[in-house]
């Protein structure tokens, strides 16, 4: 029965562990994370929560990957991306709603995601993929739509605040925050609609000429005419529903643990006198490790379009969901929200955007460009600690 294939022992064991840890912190009334928390206890609690979040994230990715195989592209990638980004949005919102004022946490997180996903992960994927498959094909038109979305949404959220009056210091006024949040949501929703309907073909891996064979051409035409039983359709739908349910069960403990994680990260940054922007970097790294591994695996499997869908789609979704969420939270709670990039971040943003445009203006990857993406990420890390 298909239930045995869905609810396997490893999945049940994973769920039992992450829900046990989440329940302990949920019902402990936060006794481990008071202001009197010692350094040793803080480190212990941090690693317990971190390990639990990573285990839960990998579980969520596994289920999203199964859904990707069941539903096909780009639906499967969208489910995976939205699952991961929703975790990130919850973590950022939790840190913003914490006791410490963190007006730039949204900007720091979005910028960190851009540097990690669009430089580190993309650079590694290009180099790893080219080492095994040389130049790899992708859909150039689809890749450029991602670049266009990143340019406009990123420009609205991260560049515009520095060149308007607003409330000063890179803050939007009430009218500006409402309008920009609504615009970003509408643009992102329409982009998803196009991606899943009329323009779906732009986000599907193009076939390489060398893999088109006579056998591949003669085995498919009849397949569409084969009758599919109603029982098979019903079972397939049930499998999708159960996979979605498991995905929810994997993500929810991350939501429950997010506030504790935010408090511990804030405690550690203050104690160690580290750059405040490090909080956003840690969130991005923790949340996007599973998706990064999936993108690398896609590059190794010569599915570079899926790598693009995962990486660029992750950043588009990050901006499309994080910016409106943070702006609305700021308006509802009167929290200060600043999205404007500083001069160094602006240079890195524009360099990343320009390099990405060069990298994906054609239809094949180049390992030289992958190396340049990694160099940009190395510069980002240097300037984070030595501005």
TrEMBL record:
* Coiled-coil stretches noted in the UniProt entry, renumbered to this chain: none
Sodium/calcium exchanger membrane region domain location, by residue? 42-195, 245-385
Q: Where in the cell is it found?
A: Membrane
InterPro entries attached to this UniProt entry:
Alkaline_pH_Ca-Antiporter, NaCa_Exmemb
Q: Where are the transmembrane segments?
A: 7-28, 40-62, 74-97, 109-131, 143-166, 172-192, 238-257, 277-300, 312-333, 339-360, 367-385
Please report the record's description of how this protein sits within the membrane: Multi-pass membrane protein
The protein's matches in Pfam families, at most eight in alphabetical order, are given as:
Na_Ca_ex
Cite the entry's keywords alphabetically.
Answer: Membrane, Transmembrane, Transmembrane helix
Q: What is this protein called?
A: Calcium:proton antiporter
Q: Which species does the entry assign this protein to?
A: Sphingobacterium populi
Q: What is the lineage of its organism?
A: Bacteria, Pseudomonadati, Bacteroidota, Sphingobacteriia, Sphingobacteriales
């Amino acid at each position: 029965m298909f239930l045995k294939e869905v609810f396997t022992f490893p999945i049940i064991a994973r769920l039992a562990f992450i829900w046990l840890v989440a329940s302990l912190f949920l019902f402990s009334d936060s006794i481990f994370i008071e202001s009197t928390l010692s350094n040793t206890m803080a480190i212990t609690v941090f690693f317990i929560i971190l390990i639990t979040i990573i285990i839960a994230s990998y579980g969520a990715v596994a289920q999203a990957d199964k859904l990707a195989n069941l539903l096909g592209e780009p639906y499967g990638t969208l489910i995976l991306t939205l699952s991961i980004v929703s975790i990130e949005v919850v973590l950022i919102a939790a840190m913003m709603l914490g006791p410490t004022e963190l007006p730039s946490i949204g900007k720091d997180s979005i910028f960190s995601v851009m540097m990690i996903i669009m430089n580190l992960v993309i650079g590694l994927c290009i180099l790893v993929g080219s080492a095994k498959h040389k130049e790899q094909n992708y859909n150039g038109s689809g890749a450029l739509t991602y670049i266009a979305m990143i340019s406009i949404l990123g420009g609205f959220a991260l560049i515009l605040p520095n060149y308007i009056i607003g409330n000063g210091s890179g803050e939007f006024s009430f009218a500006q925050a409402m309008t920009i949040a609504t615009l970003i949501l509408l643009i992102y929703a329409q982009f998803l609609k196009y991606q899943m309907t009329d323009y779906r073909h732009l986000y599907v891996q193009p076939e390489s000429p060398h893999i088109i064979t006579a056998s591949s051409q003669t085995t498919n035409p009849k397949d569409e005419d084969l009758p599919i039983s109603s029982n098979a359709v019903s079972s397939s739908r049930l499998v999708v529903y159960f996979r979605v349910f498991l995905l929810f069960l994997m993500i929810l403990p991350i939501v429950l643990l997010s506030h504790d994680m935010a408090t511990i990260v804030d405690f550690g940054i203050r104690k160690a006198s580290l750059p405040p922007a490090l909080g956003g970097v840690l969130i991005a790294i923790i949340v996007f490790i599973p998706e990064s591994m999936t993108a690398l695996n896609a590059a190794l499997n010569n599915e570079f379009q899926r790598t693009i869908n995962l990486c660029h789609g992750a950043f588009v979704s990050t901006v499309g969901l994080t910016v409106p969420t943070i702006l609305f939270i700021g308006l509802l709670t009167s929290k200060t929200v600043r999205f404007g990039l500083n001069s160094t971040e602006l240079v890195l943003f524009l360099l990343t955007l320009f390099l990405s445009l060069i990298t994906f203006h054609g239809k094949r990857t180049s390992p030289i460009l992958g190396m340049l993406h990694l160099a940009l990420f190395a510069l980002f890390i240097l300037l984070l600690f030595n501005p």
